[in-house]
Amino acid sequence: MAKKTNLIGAWAFLIGVIFAIVFAFLGAGMWLTWLFFALGIIIGLLNITDAEVKPFLFAGTILVIVSALSGNVFSQLAYVSVFLMNLMAIFVPATIIVALKSVFSLSKA
Question: Does the predicted TM-score (pTM) go above 0.85?
């Protein structure tokens, strides 16, 4: 069953990144933010194994920080700014879920 859940998480990640790119150019409403939020939770729950927790948290945290702080840098490039905001909408919930899973696994030990 681990393979199937990992496959679902991988597809959620791929769909999220593709949607982040596409909707950076097309624009969308609030439903897209909720979709990215749901995909982030799915990615955090199903796609990250125990061995991948540290690298994911490191990379996810850096991606969220850089995306959040780059708004001023890319303000003239609206599509890049929207793309980074879309990525943040995916990675913030995924990073929170993985961090919580990590804390709970540490408390069990």
Answer: no
